[in-house]
Structure formats: structure tokens, C-alpha cells
Amino acid sequence: MNKSVVIREIEAKDDKVIEAIIKRSLEKHHLDHEGTAYTDPQLAHLSTYYNERPKEKYWVIEVDGEVAGGIGIGVYDAKRSICELQKLYLAQKALGRGLSRELMKTALDYASIHFKQCYLETRHELETAGRLYEKYGFRLLDKPLDGSEHTAMDRWYIKEL
């Protein structure tokens, strides 16, 4: 059965759904605490947060009209032209369908136009995510880049764009 898949920029109507997807995913991995995206002050209003910042974007992916996840690109270090891949999360029922690859392609295509490098932070428990990042050419770093705010993360990756 073919499903209709659409990737589009986040809108205010998506905020509660994306917040719930992110929080459920973090709770599932026991990462619902300080130092993770779980406590980001902008989490409840991602559309406003991203739409107010030039060069920053957040996309949602819909399957048959229902938001199933999202991904963002934020400015990490403007002087060095480094962006950050942010908040790649999918609803549990959307896992294993290749949707993360579609979101990665959208985000990295955009990032490659505006930045020289893309950075991201994650946790070792998120093995599937780590494999995905490596598949897209991210290389593991020994430590976070200066300016990291998510102190609970223990895996840092960077990619040349």
C-alpha cells in the first residue's frame, strides 16, 4: 500500500504534535531530563522559534496527512559557517519506513547551500541514529564543539558540506 508522504516547513498547528513526538522518544530512551532537548525552552513553540530566525528551518514529515516527525537546521557557529542538525525525531509508529532518510536529505540539501559544516549531538544509546549519521558522512568527534548546550550528550558528529 502506497502512503502519501509530504515534507514541509513547520507551522504553528504542528507544535503540539512535534513536541509530543520528541518528548515520547526521549522518554522511551530515559533521556527526559536536563541537558537534553527535553528541557529546551522553545520545544513547545518550534514553529515560532525557527520561523523567527533567518537561515534556520524545521521541517515536518506527514504520512497520509498526519505529522509523523521532523528535523531542523540551526546556526551553531555563524563565523565558522557551521550549522547544527537538530531534533530529528519520528513517532514510534513511523520508525523503520525510511522517513529519517527523507528528512536527512531535506535538511542536508538546505544546509549545504548555507553552511560549510554540519554538527550534531546525540547519545550512545541511540545506535540507529548513529548509524544513520555515519551513512550520511558524519564523522565522530572526541568531544563537543565549543558552545554545546546539551550537556547530557555523549556523541558528537560533524560533516563537511
Outline of this structure?
The chain contains 4 helices and 7 strands.
Key attributes of the depicted protein:
30% strand
Please tell me about this protein's structure:
The chain has helices at 15-28, 46-51, 99-114, 127-135; strands at 5-9, 57-63, 66-77, 82-90, 117-122, 139-141, 155-160. The protein has 161 residues and is α+β, with helices and mostly antiparallel strands. β4 (82-90), α3 and β5 form a beta-alpha-beta unit. It is globular, with a radius of gyration of 15 Å. The chain contains four helices and seven strands; from the N terminus they run βααβββαβαββ. Strands 1-2-3-4-5-7-6 form a seven-stranded mixed β-sheet.
Mind sketching the topology for me?
Layout: E1 5-9, H1 15-28, H2 46-51, E2 57-63, E3 66-77, E4 82-90, H3 99-114, E5 117-122, H4 127-135, E6 139-141, E7 155-160
